[in-house]
């Protein structure tokens, strides 16, 4: 679990320095993707995919929870170090920290307290889990488009070709993260053995998916608190929205590949 968290919060943010060297106009497209690489893992999509392929869901949940909790402390530091210095501007680190605490940590603690104190309420939520999940998904989908709409005029002026280049860059970043984490897993498996945590398929799949995804929700919280210090919020968020969608698509193909592989192996064993 600690290896996953190190990859998510301590190693992948260094990709932002490479991304910032790429020249695109508007500059916010590149800056947004650089912010995206500094984020913790996605809150739900990774876990859902791991559940689909019968991976280690408990491990995926633990890594997601730990990376997002530690990300509250670490993300403001990365934003300040990698982006503020590059743009020669100051980042409201303390304000950013408190924003992440109130938007990520407080709801988590409040939800836990409500479930513990009001058993009937917890049972009602569990019974209507599907409805609450759909409502949550809809609200999370609306959030980035609210940010994007703030820069509608500038978006209409942006070159579509440049936006496609930003989308391609986001896809490339995710593929590189997958490759980096896959190589790390193979190396750790070779060192500690095939019977270790890293050598087991269900664990390896959970680690690979969760360690390679980034959270769009955290990007929204960070961009909101930056107050335009690194550019127009809508332009910063838009390539991250595309990156989020593309990482889900790519990982869905990967999950489908694993499912077909497992089915083939099961047929061979039966025969």
Query: What profile does the largest beta sheet have?
Result: none
- Global outline: globular
Number of strands: 0
Radius of gyration: 19 Å
Q: Give, in order, the helices and strands.
A: HHHHHHHHHHHHH
| Helix-and-strand structural type | mainly alpha
Strand fraction: under 5%
Helix content: over 70%
Number of helices: 13
- The chain-level mean pLDDT equals 83
Low-confidence stretches: none
End-to-end CA span = 37 Å
Report what the structure shows.
This protein has 13 helices and no strands. By secondary structure, the protein is mostly helical.
Brief descriptors of the model:
271 residues; mainly alpha; globular
Write the layout of secondary structure elements.
Elements: H1 2-11, H2 15-19, H3 28-37, H4 45-52, H5 57-87, H6 93-117, H7 119-127, H8 129-149, H9 152-157, H10 160-192, H11 201-212, H12 216-226, H13 233-270
Helix pairs in contact: 1-5, 1-11, 3-10, 3-13, 4-5, 4-11, 4-13, 5-6, 5-11, 6-7, 6-12, 8-12, 8-13, 10-11, 10-13, 12-13
Q: Summary?
A:
This protein is 81% helix and 0% strand.
